[in-house]
Amino acid sequence: MKAILTIALKDLKILARDKAGFFWVLLFPVLMAVFFGAISSGGSGNRAAMPIAVVDQDGSPYARAFLSELQKSEALRVREAGLDSARLLVRRGELVAYVALWPGAGQSFGFGGDSAKIELGLDPSRRAEAGYLRGLVTAATFSTMRGQFTSGGSGREMIRQSLASLQSDLTRSLEERRRAAGVLNNLERFMVSLDSTEGASDTTGAATAGGAGGPKIKVIDIAEEENGPRNAYEITFPSSVMWALIGVCMNFAISIVHERIRGTFLRLRLAPISRSQVLAGKGLAAFLAALGATSLLLLLAAVVFNVRITNPPALVVALVAAAFCFTGLMMLISVFGRTHSAVAGAGWAVLLVMSMTGGGMIPLIAMPAWMQSVSNFSLVKWGVLAVEGAIWRGFSPQEMALPVGILLAAGAVGFAVGARALSRSEG
Amino acid sequence: MPAIEVRNLKKSYGTTVAVDGISFEVERGECFGLLGPNGAGKSTTIHCVVGALRPDSGEVLLDGEADPTRPSVRAKIGVAPQPIALYEDLTAEENLEFFGKLYNLGGDVLKTRIEMALEFSGLAARRKDRISTYSGGMQRRLNLVSGILHDPPVILLDEPTVGVDPQSRNLIFDNIESLKRLGRTIVYTTHYMEEAQRLCDRVAIIDQGKILALDTVEGLLRAHGGPPTVQVEFARKPAGLEDLGGEWEENRLRVRTERPMEVLGRIAGMGDAFQQVSIERADLEAVFLHLTGKKLRD
Asked: What's the predicted TM-score (pTM) here?
C-alpha cells in the first residue's frame, strides 16, 4: 500500500504542476458549466418534438379523443405508459412530461368539476418548454370539448333533451328543477361562447380551461416535488463534472504513455514492487484527482451558483462511481496507442462522442429519439444521471442503482482490460 | 557463483530476432561490457536480464535466482535505462526521494542516500530545480544515480553516456570507476568502443542478436585486432622500402606488422628524412571491423 500511495502522490504532484492539465481538469469544466448555465437561463430556441407519455386511467371515448388530439400535434411525440413508468421516465429525463387522465376525466370535459382529473407532470429541467407544453395540452382539451359538444350537435341535443325531460319531471320539487335548469342553460351559453372563440383557443392557459367549465389540469413539477433544480446551473454543473472526469481521464492516460516513452514506467516496473501495485498507484492517482476535481466543482457550484446538493450521501456514491468509471476508462485509453498523438487522438474521439451523445454538451431531452437510444451506450449519460439523481432528481436508492451499477461495472471492465493490455504490451 | 548467468537467451519481436541465443556470465565485482552498434540487441538483453521483458527461451540467473521479477531479486539490482527515466516536472531531490521510497528507503537513510547521490553526481547545487531545466548531461548523471540510490550490488547501465557533453561523460566515467572500486558488479552497454576499452574488464562484442566474441579487451585485441600499424610521413617518397610491403598514399606509408620496431629501425637506417612517425595499436573498432566487416557506427 505504501508503494501505491507513493506512486499516486507523485502523479498528483505532477498533475498539480501541469498548468495545461489543471486547465482541462478544472477550469474548462467550470467555463462549460457557467457558459451553458447562462445560456439556458436566458430562454430557448427552436425545439425538436417533445417526447411525452400519456396515462389513460379513464378509458372513456372522451379520453380517447383527447389522446387523439395530442397525437395530432407535430410538436409532441406521444406514447402511452403506466403512471409509475411515466413518472420514472420523466424523472430520468427521458421524457419532458406526462399527461395522466384520472378516472372520470372524460365526464369532466363537459362539466368540469371541483377536482382536477388531468395531471400534467413536467420535467423541471425543461422550464422553457413547460408553458408551451401546457398550451398544447390545453388546446387539446378544448379541441376535445368542441368535438364532443359541437361536432354533429350531439352535445347540444343532449342538453335540450335534458331540459325538456327536467321540465316534465313532476317528481322533483320546483326548486330542484329551477337549479338544474340553470346549470343546463349556463352550459348551453358556454357552448355558444366556444363557437365564438373557435381558432383562438391555442393560446389559452390551463386556468382558462378550468374556469370555462372544462377539466381542471393539475400541473406537477415531477422532479421539483422531490427537490428539483432551482436554476440552470443545477443542470449544467453535473455535465461539467463529466468534463472534469474526461479531463482527468485524458491527462492520466497520456501521462502513462509519457511514462512509457520516457522510460519512467520501466523504472517503476524494475522497482521491487509488483506490476499490480504500479497500476494500482496510477489508478489511485487518477481516482483521487477525479474525486478532488469533481468535489471542487460541486463546491463551487454550491457556494457561487446556488446549486443545492439535496442528497449528499447519494452524491458521494455517484461521484465515487463516476470517478471509478473514468479511472477504468483512463487505463483502457492509455493502451489505445504507443504515442501521445495516438492516445490523445483516439481518447478524445471516444470521449467527445460519449459526451455529445451522453448529455455532456446538450441535455439528453433535447436530442432526437435515435440519439437518445444511442446515449445509453455513453458512460457520460450514466454519470450525469447519477449526479443529477443525487443533486435534484431525488432518485431513490433503487433508482440510483442502475446508473451507479453501470458506472462501476464499466470502470472495472475498463481497468481490467486496460491493465491487461498494458502488461502484455510491456512484455 | 557468478553474479549474473545468461544461458541461451532468445527474444523476438514478431519476425525480428532481437536476441539470438546469447550466453554469458558476469563475475562479482566485474565490469562487463556489451559492445555493439545500435539495434544489436544490447538493450533487449539488459531488459531480459532484469525481467522487464520475458525471453522467448533461455534462462537468466541473478545471484543464483531464476526469477528476476521477484522483489527480493530486484532489490539487489540497480538499472540506469537508456532513456532519461526521470520526472521532468519534479526536482532532482523529489525524483530521488520518489525512487528511494519505491525501494523501501525512508527516514534518515533516505535523506543520507539522497545527499550522497547528489554529491556523487555533482548536482547538489541544483537539487531544488526541476530537471526540465537541466542540461542533457546533468539529466544523464541524475538518471544514473537514481538507479543506484538503494546501493545495489549489481548495476546495469544501458548506454549511460548517450548524447552528453565531454565534461559530463568524464564525470560519469569517474562515477563508474568509483563503483568498480567499491566492488559493485556492473554490466555496461555501449556502442562507443573507447568507453568499453576504458571501463570494462571483459567485453562481449554483439551484433544482430549474437555474441561474436567475448574476452578481456587485451584478449580481443590479440585475437581479432590484427597487428599494429606503423605510419610514416616522408618529405618525399624514398626508394628501397618496397620490401616492407604496406600501402603508399603519396608520401605516406602505412605498414601493418607484428614487429613495428624493426620497421622503424629500417626507416631510420635509410637516412631519409621523415616528418612524422606513429605506431597505432589495434582497438575494439578494429576488432568489430574484423568480426563483422563493418564499422561500429555504421
From this structure: 0.69
